[in-house]
Each structure stands twice: as structure tokens, then as C-alpha cells.
Amino acid sequence: GQNIDQPTEMTATEGAIVQINCTYQTSGFNGLFWYQQHAGEAPTFLSYNVLDGLEEKGRFSSFLSRSKGYSYLLLKELQMKDSASYLCAVRDSNYQLIWGAGTKLIIKP
Amino acid sequence: IAGITQAPTSQILAAGRRMTLRCTQDMRHNAMYWYRQDLGLGLRLIHYSNTAGTTGKGEVPDGYSVSRANTDDFPLTLASAVPSQTSVYFCASSPASYNEQFFGPGTRLTVL
């Protein structure tokens, strides 16, 4: 079967750094996405990795290791507005997205 | 303003009733998707359409149907609603199936 695993909830302090991990087992791999979803709102696209390595975009970075079936999202200089759920999704061999349940990130002052 | 709209925003529905959730995008995206999101579960794909005139089944298609008569609209119909269809429904679109997806604001549906 297909499976995406992420921690259910994480807590971090404003101004700090947090790493959200995602491991996956899917039928085929055609890229991995990270989305941000604030409570009661729609998911919004954050990053995309298809090759191994780190992709940096401002305060957010995403890393991929295809051989390990592993990715992480790194958030630096945390702000209160970063309190949200972070969704990991893998595009499988049918080009459909398989989604993790999301990691709820709580930022404390 | 370019984007995706969904209607209604929320709805309470009696079991057994028929309901159509509307989704319209003005970005001329070829691919469109319907997901449901339930607490503790990831987004689950109900149906998708890679281009106007074609549709496909996702992970949880039973009890739902879709049509794609044109590029902009992708309605989702529940023929006879059941309480297990209580969920938040998101419509999404992408330029093509290999691009990132853009999501509508969602419809919160409660079936009693």
C-alpha cells in the first residue's frame, strides 16, 4: 500500500528553527510537495522536490532523499503566522498526489 | 481576481438528498481535482479530470460523480448523501497533472 508518515503535532518557539519530517512508501515517485494549511483555510503550495538535495526558498527549505524515502521541511526564524498544518504529498506513478495527514505546528512566543 | 471558487461555503443536508458542489476556475488550467479532508486523515482524492471532456476515479469515488463539460467548471454530485460523506471538500486545479495544485476555499458539508 501507499503510506505517507508525518508527526501529528510539533511545538516550537518564535524566532527558532523547526524541522518537519516526512517518510513515504508509494507506488512510484514523481516528486514530493509541501503545502501549508492554516486552520479553516485551503492548502497553499510551499515547495517541490524531485531530485535529491535541498531546495531553499526564503525562510523555508525542503530536502529530499529518494533512496531513503525521506523529506523534511525546515522553517527558520519562526514567526507566529507560521502556526499552521504542514502537509507532505508524493506524486505517484499515476501522477496522483498521495497526502500525509499533516503536521500541526504550534508556535509559542 | 484569478483563482478557484467553490459554492456553497457550507451546507447541512439531510441523508438521502442529492447535492451538487460547484467549482469554477478562471486560470485556464487543464487538470482539476476533488478531495475530501477528514480530521486525522490526509486529503483523499475523489475524482479528477486531466482535461475537459475526461474524468477519472480517485481513491474514494463511491457515492460521488463528476462531469467536465468545459475547462472552467468541475461540479461534484452526491446522488444520495450519507452521514459518512460529512467532510470538508476541496476543489483544486493545476496547469497539467505534473504541476503543483491550487486549491479552492473548500465546502464544509454536514449530512444528518
Structural description of this entry:
Helix content of chain A is 0%, strand content 57%. Chain A has 109 residues and is mostly beta strands. In chain A, the strands form two sheets. In chain A, strands 2, 4, 5, 9, 10 and 11 form a six-stranded mixed sheet that branches. In chain A, strands 1-3-8-7-6 form a five-stranded antiparallel sheet, with no helix packed on it. By secondary structure, chain B is mainly beta. Chain B has strands spanning 4-7, 10-13, 19-25, 31-37, 44-49, 56-57, 64-66, 76-78, 87-94, 102-103, 107-111. The chains are: A mainly beta (109), B mainly beta (112). Chains A and B meet through strand 5, strand 9 and strand 10 of A and strand 5 and strand 10 of B.
Q: Compute the CA-based radius of gyration of chain A.
A: 13 Å
Distance between the termini of chain B: 35 Å
Shape of chain B: globular
Mean pLDDT level of chain B: 95
In total, the number of strands of chain B is 11
Radius of gyration of chain B: 13 Å
Low-confidence runs of at least 5 consecutive residues of chain B: none
**How many H/I helical runs of chain A?**
0
Could you tell me the strand content of chain A as a percent range?
over 45%
Sheet having the most strands of chain A: 6 strands, mixed
The helix content of chain A is: under 10%
Low-confidence stretches of chain A: none
How are helices and strands ordered from N to C of chain B?
EEEEEEEEEEE
- Largest interface pair: A-B, 21 and 18 residues
Largest sheet of chain B: 7 strands, mixed
**What's the number of extended β-strand segments of chain A?**
11
What does the overall shape of chain A look like? globular
